[in-house]
């Protein structure tokens, strides 16, 4: 399995395939068919060495497509809450099984694959927005294109379907794309700095030594505190680097995928930190879980 954004070779192949998209964007044209071809190529690279995960991905996509289409068709005629809950449960079911199965058996789950969590968030989001009447029309191609958009496939950021579709359907302005291209290149270089330099330095020069101290009970208290901070910084720069790659490549493809981090360690409190860390996931839970729960509890007069 080829890890996305994991090697220089990956980027060399990536830039070779993105070159026609960049040229077309500077000319004010979109290439939806070629974009789909590039997506298939990189999904193949991700799963070529793991047939089981590849099959699981294909089955998952058709499962979610069937659920979303069936619920969309139903929603045009009726709006029963029980059907909505059933559709949502069935959408989340594969992810639930993947998370629960290791607790029940020692062997690795047969239905899991890289990126299943983020794809589940996208699919469940579609069902909830259909329930709200926000999605007025649904094309299978648009759904699959949104679900499998390869720059964000494995670990986000989590986009919104209506925003993604509106942008994908709109023509490209060459001047705006040139600015987007510059920003995308900057983010890719920022990703290199974060992931391959800063995160690597923290891993090799801080975490490794602190882990040794902890295992051998050398200055255990100070080592534990140091490890906590060092690993937090490593986690940020590694994940923020990946997110910068994903957003930067999205920009090169003419899609303004939302940013995932906004200087979280400059936050003044925990609430602000959470709103700056993995923002698309935080906002997803805010919009599709917390706000709905508050609305439901208010409607039922819990408070």
Automatic annotation (TrEMBL):
Output this protein's name. D-alanine esterification of lipoteichoic acid
UniProt lists the family membership as follows: Belongs to the membrane-bound acyltransferase family.
Q: Which NCBIfam families match?
A: LTA_dltB
Name of a matching Pfam family: MBOAT
Organism, per UniProt?
Answer: Listeria cornellensis FSL F6-0969
Give the membrane topology, semicolon-separated if more than one: Multi-pass membrane protein
Location of this chain's protein in the cell: Cell membrane
What Gene Ontology biological process does one annotation of this record name?
lipoteichoic acid biosynthetic process
Keyword Membrane appears in the UniProt entry: yes
Q: Mainly localized where?
A: membrane
Record keywords: Membrane included?
A: yes
Bilayer-spanning residue ranges: 6-27, 32-48, 79-97, 103-121, 184-202, 239-257, 277-295
The record's keywords, sorted A to Z, are: Acyltransferase, Cell membrane, Membrane, Transferase, Transmembrane, Transmembrane helix
GO terms for molecular function, please?
acyltransferase activity
Source species, domain of life: Bacteria
Annotated Gene Ontology cellular components are: plasma membrane
């Amino acid at each position: 399995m080829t890890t996305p954004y994991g090697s220089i070779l990956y980027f060399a192949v990536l830039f070779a395939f993105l070159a026609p998209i960049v040229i077309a964007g500077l000319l004010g044209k979109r290439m939806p068919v070629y974009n789909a071809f590039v997506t298939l190529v990189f999904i193949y690279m991700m799963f070529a060495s793991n047939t089981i995960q590849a099959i699981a991905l294909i089955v998952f996509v058709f499962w979610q497509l069937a659920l979303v289409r069936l619920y969309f068709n139903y929603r045009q005629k009726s709006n029963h809450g029980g059907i909505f809950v059933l559709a949502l449960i069935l959408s989340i079911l594969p992810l639930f099984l993947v998370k629960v199965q290791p607790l029940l058996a020692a062997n690795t789950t047969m239905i899991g694959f890289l990126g299943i969590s983020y794809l589940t968030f996208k699919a469940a989001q579609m069902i909830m927005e259909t329930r709200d009447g926000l999605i007025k029309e649904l094309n299978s191609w648009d759904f699959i294109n949104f679900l499998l958009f390869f720059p964000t496939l494995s670990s986000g950021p989590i986009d919104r379907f209506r925003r993604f579709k509106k942008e994908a359907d709109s023509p490209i302005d060459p001047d705006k794309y040139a600015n987007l291209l510059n920003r995308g290149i900057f983010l890719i270089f920022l990703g290199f700095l974060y992931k391959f330099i800063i995160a690597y330095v923290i891993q090799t020069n801080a975490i490794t030594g602190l882990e040794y101290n902890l295992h051998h009970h050398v200055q255990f208290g100070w080592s534990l505190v140091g490890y906590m901070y060092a690993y937090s910084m490593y986690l940020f720069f590694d994940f923020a680097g990946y997110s910068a790659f994903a957003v930067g490549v999205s920009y090169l493809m003419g899609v303004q995928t939302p940013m995932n981090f906004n200087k979280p360690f400059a936050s003044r409190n925990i609430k602000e930190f959470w709103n700056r860390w993995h923002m698309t996931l935080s906002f997803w839970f805010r919009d599709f879980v917390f706000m709905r729960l508050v609305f439901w509890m208010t409607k039922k007069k819990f408070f």
